[in-house]
Amino acid sequence: MNMDSFESLIRRWRALCAELEPRGVRLLVVSKYAPDDAVAALIAAGQRDFAESRPQALRDRARRWPECQWHMIGPLQRNKAKYVGRFAGMWHSVESLQQAEAVAAHVHGRTLPVLIQVNLSGQAHQHGVAPEHADALCRQVANVKGLRVCGLMGMAPKDATRESFRTLCRLRDRCADGSFAELCMGMSHDYACAVDEGATMVRIGSALFGEWDTRLARKDRD
Ligand SMILES: *Cc1c(COP(=O)(O)O)cnc(C)c1O
To answer: Total structural domains in the chain?
Structure first.
């Protein structure tokens, strides 16, 4: 990555912060496809919240940069639960009680904040708990020692973005008698809408990393 790309990365990051900070929205930089030097540049500029979708990558980066919070996003296989339990600053993709218990078994000497992931797509193969089961899962996970449920996370289908964010916001207000503060929704293409609809955290990758992101993503898939 050359100097010019670092400068434009930091410029995009500053613009995003200027947009989100006045509204009290926390920016999670999704660094899953970003190289280490881009992460280091953002940390030097002051960014502290990063999100990873692969547990080993999360562990490696959490060890390297313990001054940051490493958020686990995306599906989790049971055999990777230990990395999340030990290294995540927040876990955004709780889908079942079994999975929550598997992670909690590796949380020692602290409490891990978690979000319940809700499937807003209406399609069973997508990740997250169905909206009608979210409240029950919140209540079950609330009883798991070592975890603290603090809100909901979701991804909006492209054809019903605003309605889906609204649904998630209303669900957050109802779940566990309205005791949850956090609402993590919105990515590069739809974060503005999510912020309008009450997001407290947004997860942004490609809007910051641009072409490196997609180039690395392609390599990752091949
Ligand atoms: C990759 C990813 C993001 C970031 O998406 P961009 O469109 O690159 O901003 C957000 N949330 C989840 C769950 C992801 O896996």
So the answer is: 1
CA–CA distances in Å: residue 54 to residues 48, 77, 213? 18, 10, 15
Query: Is 204 near ligand 1, meaning CB less than 6 Å away?
Result: yes
Express each pLDDT in 139-169 by its tens digit. Answer: 999 999 999 999 999 999 999 999 999 999 9
The angle formed by the CA atoms of residues 203, 204 and 210, to the nearest 5 degrees, is 160
The domain of 175 spans: 3-221
Determine the atom of ligand 1 nearest the C-alpha atom of 53. Answer: 15
**CA 204–ligand 1 middle distance (angstroms):** 6
Whose CA is closest to 199, among 159, 158, 164, 160?
Answer: 164
The helix or strand, by DSSP H or E, that contains position 23, with its residue range, turns out to be: none
Residue 141, ligand 1, Cβ within 6 A: no
pLDDT tens digits along 213-222: 555 555 554 4
Q: Which one of 187, 189, 211, 220 would you pick to mutate in the ligand 1 pocket, going by the greatest count of ligand atoms within 8 A of its CB?
A: 187
Query: Which atom of ligand 1 has the smallest separation from the CA of 188?
Result: 9
Q: Judging by beta carbons within 10 Å of its beta carbon (0-12, 13-18, 19+), is residue 90 exposed, middle or buried? A: buried
CATH number of the domain bearing residue 108: 3.20.20.10
